[in-house]
Write a structure and sequence with these properties.
Blueprint: H1 2-30, H2 38-50, H3 54-75, H4 80-89, H5 95-103, H6 112-123, E1 128-132, H7 138-145, E2 149-154, H8 157-169, E3 175-178, E4 188-193, H9 203-212, E5 214-223, H10 241-249, E6 252-258, E7 261-266, H11 280-294, H12 297-312, H13 321-325
Parallel strand pairs: 1-2, 1-4, 2-3, 4-5
Antiparallel strand pairs: 5-7, 6-7
Helix pairs in contact: 1-7, 1-11, 1-12, 2-3, 2-5, 3-5
């Protein structure tokens, strides 16, 4: 019991350290010039693109999750093609509002998954990033602003158009491809797939494609709920024991667990089935994550110090995560 308590205390301490620079890095990357808060900045983007008032945008954001659930339940997709049709024709009208509101950080843990995966990649000198199921492109913007060569992929051309516009107004360049485009094998060094696998009838098949397009030693970061969530009937797949076993067969080694996100690394050797370790496994995994996360504290701590210095100097002298992680 004492060891469990010590591990949990250490993990809470590590997460507490990493939250502040994550929030600052996320906000700094997405905030438009002249805007004071991230929420107002993201609402302004929606208002400009869809030619709405901020009041109208806010109302649509607040109702977006319920609107998606209602549309899904009314259509009740039964086949994989029914699901594809929903994400091509119905969801793109609502998703920009739901995702923008989510990305406005009403929960301070929102950016943790992406930014901790980013630090892992930067520590390895990686730059080629695929944002699979990119949606409105917020994660890709953050990666691009930190020096990554970014490719955005989504099933919806409408969402890709909105994401491309967001890049354009920030003066950023990226590659935009739809789901019909075949991914190049052994090409990407880091792949992020946030809030997408749970919407797929065959997540294992997609994970095989993503693994094939990842270089040896590359990073894969996914988010996927473990249990059914009543507010999200669109979720049809979960991060189950079956999914975990299949990912081990793909030689994906789990190296960290961050809130909703799981970070894997593609390896060239068979991955041990962790379930065989029974009682010992939770302790081993928590200690392993704690040790690996501890190695990231130098760039985290430097970023905290940089953010404090920028605040004291009126925001002058922006330093990105990429700058920090190379020091």
């Amino acid at each position: 019991m004492g060891l469990y308590a010590s591990v949990n205390t250490l993990m809470r301490w590590l997460t507490a350290i990493s939250t502040e620079p994550c929030l600052k890095a996320w906000t700094e990357a997405l905030l438009l010039p002249g805007e004071k808060t991230l929420e107002e900045s993201l609402l302004a983007e929606l208002a400009q693109f869809f030619h709405l008032t901020k009041g109208q945008v806010r109302a649509r954001c607040l109702s977006a999750t319920a609107d998606l659930a209602r549309e899904w339940q009314q259509r009740n997709p039964q086949t994989a093609q029914d699901m594809v049709d929903f994400y091509l024709n119905i969801a793109p009208r609502i998703y920009p509002f739901e995702l923008m509101w989510y990305h406005a950080i009403h929960d301070e843990r929102t950016p943790l998954d992406a930014l901790i995966a980013m630090v892992y990649a930067l520590q390895l000198g990686y730059r080629k990033c695929l944002d699979f199921g990119c949606g409105i492109g917020s994660h890709a913007i953050v990666f691009k602003k930190n020096g990554f060569d970014v490719t955005l992929n989504d099933i919806s051309r409408e969402l890709l158009t909105f994401a491309e516009w967001r890049f354009h107004i920030r003066g950023l360049e990226a590659t935009f491809v739809d789901s019909d485009t075949k991914l190049t094998r052994d090409h990407f060094e880091i792949i992020i797939a946030f809030d997408v696998l749970e919407h797929l009838a065959d997540p294992i098949g997609v994970l095989r494609l993503l693994t094939d397009s990842l270089v040896s030693g590359g990073i894969l970061c996914i988010t996927m709920p473990e249990v059914y969530e009543p507010d999200y009937p669109l979720h049809v797949s979960y991060y189950s024991d079956h999914v975990r076993r299949e990912m081990q067969k793909l030689r994906l080694l789990r190296i960290d667990k961050v809130w909703n996100g799981v970070i894997y690394r593609k390896v060239d050797y068979p991955v041990l089935n962790e379930e065989r370790w029974s009682v010992v496994t939770p302790i081993v995994k928590k200690m392993r994550y704690a040790i690996r996360r501890r190695k990231l504290q130098v760039p985290f701590q430097r970023l905290i110090q940089t953010c404090h210095w920028q605040e004291a100097n009126g925001g002058v002298g922006c330093v990105t995560w990429a700058d920090q992680c190379q020091r």
